[in-house]
Amino acid sequence: MTQYVGAIDQGTTGTRFMVFDHSGQVVANAYEKHEQIYPKPGWVEHDAMEIWENTQSVIQEALSRADVDPEQLAALGVTNQRETTVVWDKDSGRPVHNALVWQDRRTTDRVEEIQEAGKVEEIREKTGLECDAYFSATKTEWILDNAEPLKMSSSRGRDLRARARDGELLMGTIDTWLIYNLTGNHITDVTNASRTMLYNIRDLEWDDELLEEFSVPKEMVPEVRPSSDEDYYGHTDPDGFLGAEVPVAGALGDQQAALFGQTCFDAGDAKNTYGTGSFYLMNTGEEAVSSDTGLLTTIGFQMSGEPVQYALEGSIFITGAAIEWLEDVDLINNAAQTAELAKSVDSTDGVYMVPAFTGLGAPHWDGRARGTIVGMTRGTGKEHIVRATLESIAYQTRDIGEAMEADSGVELTSLRVDGGAVKNNFLCQLQSDILQTEIARPEVDETTALGSAYAAGLAVGYWETIDELRDNWQIDREFEPEAEPATVDAQYERWADAVERAKDWARDEDDE
């Protein structure tokens, strides 16, 4: 009987299940969206029960479509939207509140308290993270303080904190929630633990001082395991929805899964995922490199019996969303048109577009920055603005790349790319020119799901070595720099000038 590996890819807007064969090719695929819940401005929630129900649905749908029997699955891997937090009742398995999504900003005031108390540097040193509402620590704290206690006879009159201390409540990111429902075991992997702001990425353990700071009882946090675990996280219930006992043996946060799926196994290997925004990760090997340039230090992955591999991460808020904006304002009819328009001119004629619609992320970190277009003349046409928008994606990536080289001391020789925008050949060539480095686009662009499949498959021996995975990684196309370095450097200096004009733009009236 032919064996495959399945990957649950639980994202911000929906859940995907993919089945891969030994060569890393897609055998089956199904996807389902879930509801986005916005109780108040800046608040974003998901129904964790809906996510679990959709997970079961897409697994069954994908297997049915491809006529794959669950018994043919050698293993299951999980990858997930990171930081999104669930707290649930251990006995009933029911969440005590909707999941708080990574985008949720309701705990900003709490973060500002911590900043004013001068604790930011200590948190960064332990976790590698900026102190921000983005991460799970303040989300868990908020749920324990604000969710209505479950109306159960055994818990009447007892608040959630007391129940958490007594081990009656569990918390976790979405990977933990899915692993718990699949296997009954309360487990996360090192990459997801590293995104909670409760985990010490150097000591590789839950940090007692941080747990105390955020009033999260140690009894409710999951056991932390390698991303690819030969001991397995557990098995699916043969009497459950799948009807088979399948090992669940791999998990990675989505951006780390893309790093793994792109086979960035060695120090200096880097990938950039071009989506609504972009996430650029560089493997820094066994060293947790502290950033002096506004990047995050995070765990890249860990394989069974091997040391943790660390990564530097740079988050760009707006890349693909800038192309969506061009469509919104009727400068283009669809994303595919950008290449055609951009190629119709030799340059932007000095026009720069800085897509700081929601501020600037790494390495600038300016929440008051706003989108700007500079350098226009009477001769500027939409083709110049479209080209400038594509160039802005490439320039922002160079901003991150230069920050990474400065922090790590490792010179980038090749960047592996994935995500919807990299189907655009013009953008890939532009990226190569502006970075002055090789761009490698793989054949299989679902690298996030593939990464979690690889992690699970390695754990069960479906793949014996990472060299097999390297052999699987097939290049669709490589792009080499064609532009003169001196020309590109001069243009990049002007980009920096444009960014300065975008900074600190959104001010309250009181600030003026």
From TrEMBL:
Binding of glycerol occurs at 82-83, 134, 254-255
Q: Which GO terms describe its molecular function?
A: ATP binding; glycerol kinase activity
Listed GO CC annotations: cytosol
Q: Which residues form a coiled coil?
A: none
Keywords carried by this UniProt record? ATP-binding, Glycerol metabolism, Kinase, Nucleotide-binding, Transferase
The record ties this protein, via Gene3D superfamilies, to: 3.30.420.40
Which positions are annotated as binding ADP? 12, 16, 276, 320, 420, 424
Carbohydrate kinase FGGY N-terminal domain span? 4-261
Instruction: Give the binding site residues for ATP.
Output: 12-13, 276, 320, 420
Annotated residues for binding of sn-glycerol 3-phosphate: 12, 82-83, 134, 254
Pathway of action: Polyol metabolism; glycerol degradation via glycerol kinase pathway; sn-glycerol 3-phosphate from glycerol: step 1/1
Q: Which reaction does it catalyse?
A: glycerol + ATP = sn-glycerol 3-phosphate + ADP + H(+)
Q: Which CDD domains does this UniProt record tie to the protein?
A: ASKHA_NBD_FGGY_GK (cd07769)
Under which EC number(s) is this enzyme classified?
A: 2.7.1.30
Gene Ontology terms: biological process: glycerol catabolic process; glycerol-3-phosphate metabolic process
User: Where in this chain does the record put each Carbohydrate kinase FGGY C-terminal domain?
Assistant: 271-459
Q: Which domain of life is it from?
A: Archaea
> Could you say which protein family the record assigns here?
Belongs to the FGGY kinase family.
Physiological role: Key enzyme in the regulation of glycerol uptake and metabolism. Catalyzes the phosphorylation of glycerol to yield sn-glycerol 3-phosphate.
Can you say what this protein is called? Answer: Glycerol kinase
Per the UniProt record, the source organism is Halorubrum vacuolatum (Natronobacterium vacuolatum)
The organism's lineage is: Archaea, Methanobacteriati, Methanobacteriota, Stenosarchaea group, Halobacteria
Q: Which gene encodes it?
A: glpK
